Amino acid sequence: MNTLPKVVTIVGSTASGKTSLGVFLCQKFGGEIISADSRQVYRGLDLGTGKEGVPSLSFPPATPKRQRGERKRESRNSPNSGSPIESGMTTRLINDIPQYLIDIKNPEEKFNVHDFKVNAELVIDNMISRNRLPFIVGGTGLYIDALVENYEFGGRDNKQKNPPKYQVLQIGIKIPRDVETNGRSSLHQRIDKRVDERMQQGMLEEVRGLLDSGVNPQWLISLGLEYKFLTEHLIGKISDLDQALQELKYATHAFARRQETWFNHHGDVKWISEKEEAVNIVQNFL
């Protein structure tokens, strides 16, 4: 019998609805979310990385192990399990569901897969101590892989696979590619619509504000996608905004294909297209 703690990952391409599914499942199963997104760790990178919810500075402490005679630990679905304290661990709340490892670094500060794994394991241990089910949600495949395969990083490009620390259920969101309107797949339509919506919400102003605050444009460009093309527009490398946005959309289409390829070749991902499918899979896992 496998007695390792249970963890659920939700993966898929950009714009596939991972966070929405994660919040839905957390509400069903008493879970909390860890973001596995290499850009959401940075403060001020909000619209371009698709952060949701509202910021919060509270982080629940671990619940001490019960001593003999103490009352049983509260259930996953109890709203009072764990007393929030401020401890420097920033969260965001999406419909009262905490989401961790967001807004923990300033722009240009170093953060890599090793840092993610160390921080994610600390948060997972905290969730488990409070009888919460950890949901790892994101599209950075290397981050997900590091947790699932329990890699130990010993230096540059040096990793060692260790025995697993968790029982992991991997759920992937599959967006059909055979549904097309005006020559665009449904996923491409979602990507393009999201770019347009974020522009209306002020994504260009967000990038301009980062540059005005002194963030190195080359660092923003190195992040790719939204920050690359909007920065190149603002510094004059791409003079026409419409051209920058079209290049951004095409680049995001290609990025989504690379994400799908990664997750198809890494781990035992159970692909779903409806939320209720995921509910059944998680129930069977638990």
Automatic annotation (TrEMBL):
Site (Interaction with substrate tRNA): residue numbering on this chain: 140
The EC number(s) this enzyme carries: 2.5.1.75
Entry annotated with the keyword Magnesium: yes
InterPro entries: Dimethylallyltransferase, IPT, P-loop_NTPase
Positions annotated to bind substrate: 14-19
UniProt KW keywords: ATP-binding, Magnesium, Nucleotide-binding, Transferase, tRNA processing
Pfam families: IPPT, IPT
Catalytic activity: adenosine(37) in tRNA + dimethylallyl diphosphate = N(6)-dimethylallyladenosine(37) in tRNA + diphosphate
TM helices/strands, residue ranges: none
Ranges for region Interaction with substrate tRNA: 37-40
GO terms of molecular function: ATP binding; tRNA dimethylallyltransferase activity
A single BP term in Gene Ontology: tRNA modification
Positions that bind ATP: 12-19
SUBUNIT field: Monomer.
Function: Catalyzes the transfer of a dimethylallyl group onto the adenine at position 37 in tRNAs that read codons beginning with uridine, leading to the formation of N6-(dimethylallyl)adenosine (i(6)A).
Protein family per UniProt: Belongs to the IPP transferase family.
Protein name, UniProt field: tRNA dimethylallyltransferase
Organism: Berkelbacteria bacterium GW2011_GWA2_38_9
